[in-house]
Amino acid sequence: MKKEDIPFYKPTIDEQELEQIQEILQDNSKSKVEELENEVKEFIGCEHVITTYNSTAALHLALSAMDLKRADKVLMSVNSFPNIPEVVRHFDAEPIFIDIESNGLNIDLDKLEAFLEENNSKKLRAVIVTFVGGELPDLDRLYTIAKKYSILVIEDALNTIGALYGNDLVGNVGADMTIFSMNPVNGKSTVSNAGFITTNNEELASRAKLLRTHALNSSFDSYGNLDYIYDVVDIGHKYDMTDLEAAFNLAQFYKANSFIERRQEIAELYINNLQDVKHVSVPDFNENHLYTQFIIKVDKNRDGFARELKKEGINTGLTYIPLHLLTYYKQKYKLKITTYANALNTYGQILSLPMYPSLKDEEVLYICNTIKQIAKEWI
Q: Which of 209, 255, 300, 375 would you label with 74, given CA atoms 20 to 30 Å apart?
């Protein structure tokens, strides 16, 4: 196999995407945005779906809908993508970081609850919980904690559409709002970065829909006449999705279950081939895990290990660099490197391998064999 044959991520596209796009180009009288929202709503079983052009816009819109204000505080895992605290700072509000579990990558709910017990305040408005790599935390406990301290729960569900929690699909379990992304690699897609909000809260949904397009109200009759009469009732955004993007993402949405099944097959192949490799740790297989990323641990010189893989044409990623190590947040809040010990220790070892539905079995086996060979000579 040639070097640089295996990218970290590659979109899975076939005739279905082309057919959806061709349909809207030939007949734009029907809204693909409405079709996508209705399909997602019916699938998840939630009351409202609000599409946006990417998941960061969806998150910013969600915070706008809850009327986040200056000096408000929002809790989140220190192991999150930078867009999470970024949107909070755009309100001149304060992100509060919570460490991760000692044996996992998601927020430590014990530490979340301990913080709330010690710092209960009306300024604490919400917790944003990221599902790292597609693994779900204990949502029942999360909702109980949030209810006790009267804070909103916003789930950063990434591309976990189709994930089950008990008998319900994520997006209709118990969060105030759930943010989904149709792009699994945080903005690196060259095709579409679509996002959307799901909620069962009528007030939040109505406000999000209003603010999505300049907080602009138009006046129509039943035939659509006089749609040039409009009013602006608040400060809004321009976060709506185009019909072309919706057409592409409809085709992607229809493949959600097959994508999940394929990622789980790939994860099982990785685990079976890497579970006894020296210097490398892999997660246990869990049929409820969506494996939106496949994250291993390398016990020595992770970056050197990644460079060796790169030489053999295998591209890797990092999910994620702890937020308190990033220059802006470290300086802004005078955070010490050792403040979040679990995240710091985990960060030095984690490495994300290629994981996407179009990844072939022979490519996975090549990655595994290359890792075995490197690990055999690793000091």
A: 209
CA distance linking residue 90 with residue 108, whole number of Å: 26
Q: What local confidence, expressed as pLDDT, does residue 188 receive?
A: 53
What gap in Å lies between CA 354 and CA 12, rounded to an integer?
Answer: 13
Look at residue 207 and tell me whether its pLDDT is greater than 60.
Answer: yes
pLDDT level of residue 89 (50, 70, 90 thresholds): very high
Can you tell me the mean pLDDT for 182-201? 76
Question: Which residues fall within 8 angstroms of residue 226, CB to CB, at 6 or more apart?
Answer: 219, 220
Token code pair at residue 1 = 């196999």
Classify residue 285 by its DSSP letter: P
**Do the strands 152-156 and 177-181 form a parallel or antiparallel pair, or are they unpaired?**
parallel
The pTM of this model reads: 0.94
Cβ neighbours, 10 Å, residue 3: 10
Map residue 64 onto helix, strand or coil. Answer: helix
Intra-chain end-to-end CA distance of the chain, in Å: 26
Distance CA 50, CA 267 (A): 31
Max Cα separation, the chain? 74
| Residue 93 to residue 233: CA distance in whole angstroms | 23
- Domains defined along the chain, listed by start: 15-254 (3.40.640.10), 256-377 (3.90.1150.10)
- At residue 4 the predicted structure's pLDDT band, cuts being 50, 70 and 90, is low
pLDDT of residue 314: 97
* CA–CA dist 358, 346 (Å, integer): 29
The C-alpha atoms of residue 88 and residue 17 are separated, in whole angstroms, by: 34
At 80, which amino acid appears?
Answer: S
Q: pLDDT tens for residues 254-311?
A: 999 999 999 999 999 999 999 999 999 999 999 989 999 999 999 999 999 999 999 9
Q: Quick: pLDDT tens for 25-44.
A: 998 888 999 999 999 999 99
- Comparing CA positions, the residue from 304, 302, 260 lying closest to residue 281 is 302
Going by C-beta distance under 8 Å and a sequence separation of 6 or more, which residues neighbour residue 139? 165, 173, 174, 175
| Cα 205 from Cα 13, distance rounded (Å) | 31
